[in-house]
Amino acid sequence: MKQTNCNQSNSWSSKKLRKSYLEFFKSYGHEIIPSASLLPDNDPTVLFTTAGMHPLVPYLLGEKHPLGRRLVDCQKCIRTDDIEEVGDETHLTFFEMLGNWSLGDYFKRESITMSYEFLTLELGIPKERLAVTVFEGDDSVPRDVETHHIWSSLGLRENQIFFYGRKENWWGPAGQTGPCGPDSEIFYDNGCNPCSDQCGPACNCGKYVEIWNNVFMEYKKEGNGTYTLLSQKNVDTGMGLERILAILNNKNSVFETDLFLPLIMKLEDLMGIKILNEINNMNSAEETMKQFRIIADHMRSITFLLADDKGIIPSNTEQGYILRRLIRRTLRLLKKCNINQNVLPEFAEIVILNNQEEYPELVRNRDFIFDQLKKEYHLFRKTLDSGLKKAEQFMRSLEGDRILSGDLAFKLYDTYGFPIELTIELAEEYGASVDLFEFNRKYKEHQEKSRVGAEGKFKGGLADQSERTARLHTATHLLNGALRIVLGNTVYQKGSNINADRLRFDFSFDRKLTEEELQKVEQIVNEAIDKDIPVICEELTTTEAKDQGAIGVFDHKYEQRVKVYTIQGYSKEICGGPHASKTSELKHFTILKEESSSAGVRRIKASIQED
Ligand code: SER
Question: What CATH homologous superfamily does 14-248 map to?
Fold first, then answer.
């Protein structure tokens, strides 16, 4: 991120920025909503919450939000598709997205005017430093002259407004079909000379830094590829907190903001060096700085993932696998920095201290975080030890030109979490070398596979709001209710995941369920289905919901209205929906499997009859 001549004062803390954003939009009638979990509810198509709009998909599609039509928040997000880029000045796996929404309320003029006012008046960014992009139109959707007109009327000169096509100026749908629309992106112009005549916000020379996106969701992409107008016009905006914070403080990188500095300084202490002073003077500091940035970034992701109330733990599948990878990568990098003891809890403590006011789950789950970091550290040490044995075996069996094949080096990396640098060092000790060309080929192939896998999940649609998903969601509530009837009220939800085939429900309970208990649970759910009970949705305050015995997560920081779904006699839960309208739509419920999920947590997989 190249910046020069920035006029902003150097006094923006992350806390002040978050507060200022939320309060600004509150003053324009927006309700502040708390950040949703990093683990999406009942969405089989994506591993993590990747944008502020993600938890709001049902409302963008037309469902009524209990807090009204103007919302604002600061949403914690995780994106892992750019994980290999982390280490430069801007890429992150964990980040916070500031966002404001109009759910069928205001549209382009108000949205753009508020963004402009926030940037120029609240943050003090001179309007000359802004550049914006506007959709140029194509065969399906006309040129967005209205947005151009609004920016002009706010005083932006023609050379600050750029028209681009669909690649640059269209957002969504998140899945194959759904709400989408042209957007207008706002960039910070660092004041450098243009790199060429073609230079503009779409150019990556560094002159323009994207800070905010205003999406005008007035279209719906249909299954046949055409665009129809949505019944309601929405606005979805997103601004990366870390990036705007760096700009406001005249910093070249997000890692030089208060969100990261305590972590970087801790690393300096542990290594007894002063990297922050050296970074601009010494080339050799660059590699170390890169490692520091990755460690600092990953520690935020790790701590926030472990703090999530959904109780995620490191494992070999899905989100747990990503968490494990992040932890192991961090441990490997720490090892490279010659830090071999388990310092993960010390970094986690810094993340907790830095963020506990905004994210109280960090404090609630502090012991769990430390416990998991300790376990994972020991497990990794063990894996590393067995990897060492295997590696030595490979080395000893080398003959002739003594080159360790890329295949074996990759096996050490993939199965034993063995960093390639370690394999090279070890090979040297045995007077051997490593076929790095083949290793890199295998590594890239593996990366590509995970990328395609991740994209597949994403492209599958964030908005999997199919009727079957809704029915499985209702079945989850009935299952939760039935478990509490059979096993008692100490049972509570620890996780939920739905795909087209089945539901998966994790709950607190410390032993295997008996066959009779499982039969009883199944019977209760089917009894509720046979009774054809309506699924009633009400909007209540959290206090009212609690008083009426609703279950669910009561971690809302603000006294706010929530949706409560009731299936009389069986279930009353705080939940965002959507659900079946009556229980008979579920037809028949079958438990497929009951197993352990983690210590003190059981897991049930179950399904309902196909249509
Ligand atoms: N959905 C848009 C984004 O993620 C704006 O919030 O950029």
Answer: Bira Bifunctional Protein; Domain 2 (3.30.930.10)
Output the CA 88–ligand 1 centroid distance in Å: 22
pLDDT band for position 241 (cuts 50, 70, 90): very high
Ligand 1: which residues within 6 Å by Cβ? 51-53, 99, 171, 213, 215, 236-238
CATH number assigned to the domain covering 467-608: 3.30.980.10
Is residue 296 predicted with pLDDT exceeding 90? yes
Q: How far is the CA of 215 from the centre of ligand 1 (A)?
A: 7
Q: What is this structure's pTM?
A: 0.75
Q: Which atom of ligand 1 is nearest to the CA of 238?
A: 6
How is the chain split into domains, by residue range? Answer: 14-248, 467-608
Residue 601 — pLDDT band, cuts 50, 70, 90? confident
383-406, pLDDT tens digit by residue?
Answer: 887 888 888 888 888 887 789 999
Decide if 79 contacts 50 (C-beta within 8 A): yes
pLDDT band at 539 (very low <50, low <70, confident <90, very high): confident
Identical fold between 14-248 and 467-608? no
* Atom 2 in ligand 1: residue holding the nearest Cα: 238
Nearest to 332 by CA among 344, 349, 348, 321: 344
Nearest CA, atom 6, ligand 1: 238
Residue minimizing CA distance to atom 4 of ligand 1: 51
Q: Which atom of ligand 1 is nearest to the CA of 213?
A: 5
**Would you tell me how many other CB atoms lie within 10 Å of the CB of residue 559?**
8
Which ligand 1 atom minimizes the distance to the CA of 172? 1
Q: How many angstroms does the Cα of residue 175 sit away from the middle of ligand 1? A: 14
Measure the CA–CA gap between 78 and 56, rounded to whole angstroms: 16
Question: Is the bond preceding residue 173 a cis peptide, omega within 30 degrees?
Answer: yes
- Supply 461's token pair: 């649609």
Inform me whether the pLDDT recorded for 576 exceeds 60.
yes
Tell me the mean pLDDT in the region 575-579: 81
Q: What is the β-pairing status of strands 589-598 and 601-608?
A: antiparallel
Task: Record the tokens describing residue 442, joined without a space.
Answer: 């295998």
